[in-house]
Here is the input.
Amino acid sequence: MKVTVNINLGGYAFNVDDDAYERLRQYMKNLEKEFSGESSSAEIMSDIEGRIAELFRMRLNNYKQVITMKDVEEVMSILGSPEAISGGDPSAEEPPRAQRRIYRDPEGRIIGGVCSGLAAYFTWDPLIMRILFVALVIAGGFGIGLYLVLWIVLPEAKTTAQKLEMRGDPVTIENIKDSVKREFETVKKKMNL
Amino acid sequence: MNTDNTKAQMRKGILEYCILAILSRNSCYAVDIINELKKAEVIVVEGTLYPLLTRHKNAGLLSYRWEESPQGPPRKYYELTELGRIYLSDLDRAWEELVVSVNQIRGK
Here is the structure.
């Protein structure tokens, strides 16, 4: 024995099992959220409501007078999940914005990783950055002071996320996985040597 | 990398064109459009169609009239407007150009 709920869909009354009603209500709420950006979301929702009413009517007869969970699930699979419906909108999947920050690069370092980190930030070749610093040192010793200050001021890229930020790669699960794999390969290579 | 996503994107790209092409023959109820698209394996879920039809109606490409239904609420029968026909003939041309371009590239 089950409790039923009486609902009005597209102007038609239906008796729905209470669990099936809860499921349907949740589904319609999610759909509504999905279309909330549309200017005529109310019209789209009423079209869909009418279609659900029609599909329910097809499933009822003299011997079956109540909409069950099975009916609701069938109708949901015909109409599709909110994600499948909105899948047509490519703007929904915007890639995360990459943020670039200056760090000291511990992997590519010769002294403190300052040149390597700066080079990663400006996407230069680290060698050019080093030549620049050596030139500054030779020119008047100013380079040594600058290097020491940067060494103190710049944080070291310790975590994988920080290393991605240093190179300006977006911090996504995918990138972190790749980066960890790369680190693992380098360690393995060093062990073999 | 699997081709499913690319295939889905391709289908999505031609969905609008297919809907207008179906409606150019005669006025249709949304479910008739769905059935035809399903037969051609273009669409997967019905829900995708309703927002598209409403958007095109608002843009003046489609109009609809209500018709009684034996099975439930009255149905919306959509048809192409004059503007919709012009729009479709433009898409027809674009599609033919696309086919030529792709074949040209593939033939090399």
Q: What stands out?
A: The beta strands of chain A are 4-9, 12-17, 66-67.
